[in-house]
Amino acid sequence: MNTTTAAxxxxxxxxGECEVRAAALAQQLNLPLVDNDELHSYExxxxxxxxxxxxxxxxxxxxxxxxxxxxxGSVGHRHRFGGGRGQPIAKAVGLKGxxxxxxxxxTAGLGRDAFLLASLGCHVTLIERSPIVAALLRDGLxxxxxxxxxxxxxxxMNLVEGDxxxxxxxxxxxxxxxxxxxxxxxxxxxxxxxxxxxMRLFHHLIGPDQxxxxxxxxxxxxxxxxxxxxxxxxxxxxxxxxxSAEISSKTMRYDLYVTLTNKLSATQ
Length: 268
Ligand SMILES: C[S@@+](CC[C@H](N)C(=O)[O-])C[C@H]1O[C@@H](n2cnc3c(N)ncnc32)[C@H](O)[C@@H]1O
Description:
The protein has helices at residues 19-29, 73-81, 88-93, 112-119, 131-145, 151-154, 164-169, 197-205, 212-220, 260-267, and strands at 9-13, 44-48, 53-57, 102-105, 123-128, 157-161, 179-182, 226-232, 245-248, 252-258. With 268 residues, it is an alpha/beta fold. It has two domains: 9-57, S-adenosyl-L-methionine-dependent methyltransferases; 73-267, Rossmann fold, CATH 3.40.50.150. The chain has a seven-stranded mixed sheet, sandwiched between helices. A hairpin with a 3-residue loop joins strand 9 (245-248) and strand 10 (252-258). The protein is globular and about 55 Å long. The two termini are 37 Å apart. The structure holds S-adenosylmethionine. S-adenosylmethionine (SAM) is lined by residues 106-107, 109-113, 127-130, 133, 163-165, 183-185, 206, 209, 215. It catalyses: guanosine(1516) in 16S rRNA + S-adenosyl-L-methionine = N(2)-methylguanosine(1516) in 16S rRNA + S-adenosyl-L-homocysteine + H(+). InterPro entries: 16SrRNA_methylTrfase_J, SAM-dependent_MTases_sf.
């Protein structure tokens, strides 16, 4: 499982007022807390800034650090001007008419897909197993919860830190979601600038998710209505049963596994 990183990583405070927060987080994440002059001894750095938590690389010409942003950037833009319930991800999850399914996003990452689904009315439980990604996500959720323009959406999002396959297997009857959504990391073959900077950083931090088929199997055993797997358009489906249907966008494909009929026939 990819709960640990192969990269060397440390944490630093970027201002005097950030030091107490940085020390607490360093202890929580079990990371060295370092000064500015030690940063280059590590490959990745978590920066505690006055505004937020950021993750950056120390290589020469490193791109700007990444952070979770539900207010501005592409996520905020998609929230304000996005395609609503007609967009492929909404169709994939089954947002027909007024339906607001309860969704588990079992591969939360930076929370963009989860935020989109919550902004369309779903209640979303986000599960993330990388403690560092979960810390970035918690920081973004806390900041957005204080902003009146998105606080209602954030109330529909609940973060759970841990391995999703284990969390899903342990769900009791009262907490079965309608939909389980998966967007695992796929092997990164393209080293060019075309690979988005956060993808590169994610690959540096956690590498590809090599146990996605086991996660799919756990999800298929629990989801009330369907499991949705987001894949690059040209990638094969995950190992396991064949998808029941697929919905494509320009660059991505959503493989759908309808589970409702399985559950009905199992109880008849
Ligand atoms: C490609 S990213 C997801 C991006 C996300 N959909 C978004 O919109 O920001 C995949 C994430 O899933 C997490 N992940 C993969 N397998 C997991 C598992 N079994 N349990 C919990 N998290 C998992 C990885 O740590 C990584 O952060």
